[in-house]
Specification:
alpha/beta; Quinone Oxidoreductase, Chain A, domain 1; 2 domains; seven-stranded mixed beta sheet; six-stranded parallel beta sheet; about 25% strand; globular; GroES-like_sf; NAD(P)-bd_dom_sf; oxidoreductase activity; ER
């Protein structure tokens, strides 16, 4: 099969389109013919060696953890799925080697769910990691109806989904973004504020009493968030350990098929969409990484595989 691989730690320049053996399909797994693969910052952070202390890596590596495609084969004792089923998944293994930037990928049933009909293949591929991150952050902060939620980096891949999930729960959402993305956030149901110096004052102009929940998807905003939260500890970050020092939580997204199904159901109910800024052919994965590293992406970047 064709796949994007890298042979050593480094940047986008190390990515190559190569031919590699088809993956094996173990018990409790399915083989997915990949239609599209989502791109996430963790993909190029892994490739740069940034998570080497945490995860065992075996070269050559096929990057990617997000996938949408069609079940091509099922492993032993896998009654949940059949050949031809359309699925999406957060196909993160316990080691780094066999990812989703490929024509085929194997994934355990704990990593996948049925694809929502309301989403295109590209949208479905952008949902798993970002959607689960957003959902698990909201859950860790005990977000419920009537809360005022501050979402940092609300126009990004995770933030744009967190806004929609929070709105679906009946929360009021204030989202930080550059001014060029304010109209986009209003469409998602958030009240936009510009990030940067003076953020606390701008948020208090909208919510004089502060906020109930703060979700950090960018880093460097823990102190501002804590000031706006007051005595509560409902700060959750995916990038900044300072959140824990301030009484909040730092999370690392986990595969969860029940939660992934819940996200798919929200999409089919018309309450969640996946903004996709650009779709790249598989061979242009390096260009996609460079564009995402520029830090100005609205929503998701996705690879079209087949």
């Amino acid at each position: 099969m064709r796949a994007i691989t890298y042979q050593e730690y480094g940047g986008p320049e190390n990515l190559r389109l190569t031919d590699v053996p088809d993956p094996k399909v173990g018990p409790g797994e399915v083989l997915i013919r990949v239609k599209a693969a989502g791109i996430n910052p963790v993909d190029w952070k892994l490739a740069g060696g940034g998570l080497d202390p945490l995860m065992q890596t075996y070269f050559p590596v096929i990057p990617g953890w997000d996938v949408a495609g069609v079940v091509e084969a099922v492993g032993m004792d896998t009654p949940e799925y059949a050949v031809g089923d359309e699925v999406l998944g957060y196909a993160r293994k316990d080691y780094v080697q066999h990812g989703t930037y490929a024509e085929l990928v194997s994934a355990g049933v704990r990593h996948i769910a049925r694809k929502p009909a309301a989403l295109s293949w590209e949208q479905a591929a952008g949902l798993p990691l970002a959607g689960l991150t957003a959902l698990q952050a909201l859950d860790r902060a005990r977000t419920s109806e009537g809360d005022t939620v501050l979402v940092h980096a609300a126009a990004g891949g995770v933030g744009s989904l967190a806004v929609q999930i929070a709105v679906a729960r009946g929360a009021r959402v204030i989202g930080t973004a550059s001014e060029r993305n304010h109209a986009f956030l209003r469409e998602l149901g958030a009240e936009p504020v510009t990030y940067g110096d003076g953020l606390v004052g701008r948020v208090r102009d909208l919510a004089p009493g502060g906020v109930d929940v703060a979700l950090d998807f960018v880093g460097g905003v823990a102190d501002d968030s804590a000031e706006l939260l007051g005595e509560t500890s409902r700060l959750v970050s995916v990038v900044d350990g300072r959140a824990v020092e301030l009484g909040g939580h730092a999370i690392w997204v986990r595969p969860n098929p029940v939660e992934l199904t819940a996200l798919a159901d929200l999409a089919d109910a018309g309450r969640l969409t996946v903004p996709v800024e650009r779709v790249y052919p598989l061979a242009e994965a390096a260009d996609a990484w460079r564009d995402q590293q520029n830090g100005r992406t609205r929503g998701k970047l996705v690879l079209s595989v087949s």
